[in-house]
Design a protein that fits this description.
With 231 residues, the protein is mainly α. It folds into 2 domains: 59 residues, no CATH class; 163 residues, no CATH class. Helix content is 51%, strand content 10%. The strands form 2 sheets. A 3-stranded antiparallel sheet has the order 1-3-2. Helix 2 crosses helix 9 and helix 8 runs antiparallel to helix 9. The two termini are 40 Å apart.
């Protein structure tokens, strides 16, 4: 939603520097709403869309609002699927399922194949650093993009979630094509069995997170010196 109508007919007009008090109020409201949604306030503005003094109708605008609405919808759908995936993995683990472990020979073959196909992601990108520089991506930019610690954090996001967040997602989860209502109920029961907490109790477990191998202490620090050249 990128436009929000606001009626300001209850405020008296008092011109100051060419801007009425209603206009000032509307501008302040646009900035306040933007800030509350985590958007920059300097991109917010108000525009009068009526010709008459009373009632007046204003539009509060911020280009970021429509992107925020789309992002929120996508985030909600993604979180629902991530909760489902984590619950299923943790449930299977608790039931005794284990992934096939790589042997030393498997790893040796993988490293050999990786070397034959061009090495690591880092080396592949650096071989193209001159071409990337032409579009404004410096070596410093590439080092930031290829941060090993940041990649580890991103991988962790895909394989773990805090219990309070999971409980909130489950409590608010609506029916979708991929997660219908009956799946939501099953997920709630599975959550309690896998974690040992009800949804309400889990809201207070801020130091715990669920991984495919069960509940663990939440990790809050990442290695800052992780070698980016190894991936």
């Amino acid at each position: 939603m990128d436009l929000l109508p606001v009626y300001a007919d209850a405020i008296q007009i008092s011109s100051a520097g060419g801007i009425s008090r209603r206009h000032q109020f509307s501008q302040m409201a646009a900035r306040a709403i933007s800030t509350s949604h985590g958007l920059p306030s300097h991109t917010a503005h108000a525009r009068k869309i009526t010709q008459y003094e009373s009632p007046e109708k204003w539009l509060l605008c911020n280009e970021g609002w429509k992107y925020k609405a789309i992002a929120n919808k996508s985030e909600s759908e993604r979180d629902g699927l991530l909760v489902w995936r984590l619950l299923v993995d943790a449930l299977c683990w608790k039931c005794g399922y284990r992934n096939v472990e790589w042997t030393a020979e498997d790893r040796r073959r993988w490293e050999q194949k990786k070397a034959e196909t061009g090495g690591t992601r880092y080396s592949a990108v650096m071989r193209n650093k001159d071409r990337l520089a032409e579009v404004g991506l410096s070596v410093d930019d590439l080092e930031k993009l290829l941060s090993g610690a940041r990649r580890s954090a991103a991988n962790e996001v895909a394989h773990s979630m805090g219990l309070p967040h999971m409980a909130a997602v489950l409590a608010l989860l609506g029916s979708t094509q991929v997660l219908p209502d009956d799946a939501k109920e099953a997920m709630g029961r599975a959550f309690t069995w896998v974690t040992g907490y009800t949804l309400e109790d889990a809201l207070d477990m801020e130091n715990l997170q669920l991984t495919p191998e069960g509940v663990v202490q939440r990790q809050t620090e990442w290695r800052k010196d992780e070698d980016i050249a190894t991936w």
